[in-house]
Amino acid sequence: MKYLDEFRNPELAKKLLDDIHSMSTRRWAIMEVCGGQTHSIIRNGIDQLLGDAVELIHGPGCPVCVTPLEIIDKALAIAAQPGVIFCSFGDMLRVPGSNKDLFQVKSEGGDVRIVYSPLDAVRLARENPDKEVVFFGIGFETTAPANAMAVYLASQQGVRNFSMLVSHVLVPPAISAIMESPMRRVQAFLAAGHVCSVMGTWQYIPLVNKYRVPVVVTGFEPLDVLQGIRLAIRQLEAGDARLENAYPRAVSNAGNVAAQKMLTDVFTVTNRTWRGIGMIPQSGWRLSKRFQDYDAEIRFAVTNIRTQESSLCRSGHVLQGLIKPNQCPAFGKECTPRTPLGATMVSSEGACAAYYQYGRFVELEMPAT
To answer: If you placed Cys at 340, which of 116, 228, 298, 346 could pair as Cys (CB 3.0 to 4.6 Å)?
Structure first.
């Protein structure tokens, strides 16, 4: 309780907001990369409290949201096969594919199970030697070490009926893609603290130097977010571009070296398509040659699936920070949590889900500076 009180202190929040407003000589555009930060911002009204000092741009940091449609369709194809136990975290079950989702596959007789760890899937494979057990391994650098460990342990224990459908993506290449976009408006980034707790902060220094853009590593409590914004604005107003760590209680420069070693051993960097954005070079992981026998795409021969996004869904523009969710004509109409057109509406970290859950159906007018 003391921890929560410390990071939800209204007096400190007011001081940080006063600092932000007093420092800002113009309206700065700052992107929070992580969907968890987006939900904290919208839930606590931080964007409204900032007024005309800062525009917060919601980035592509929701792992469920950026999982490409063809990967979802590959998951559906595998899960529908007889003799397969398809395991996933719960937030993937309602993500729409081209024609259905994993819940519908389950209702049609597919053995689709929610698990809480990839190691649960390895255990299921040991307990069901007559079944093929597939784990849906998605996410950023945060979830990748546990998924890598599952593949490593399956190999060590000789569990041959386990495989993984991998769709891991990496944050730094996404920042590069945003900075190199001709439609870029972002002037500073709030980097995700949990990603940096694994990978460290050293990966962001080349980005800061190349693009001359401030990057502040930030946590998820409201005061964490406000402190990150304050430090970013201080740099912008001074004309600086540095990496700052506003989350030292969890993040170091080196990160989790043991986790990084496991990732390097099990995965190899590859080009990766991001849903709604397109292909970003060297922006993801796939299983390395040593562990290729555990690649579900190869095992089930679903490598050639091609798809087409909904023409109504503008989640790609949301993920790139080009529009807010409530600027999409389908938001709250054709697209709701019950009838989602895209993953941003069903994911627990999706920007569209945050706007819907907290009643942001109308775009706010910001007062003139």
So the answer is: 346
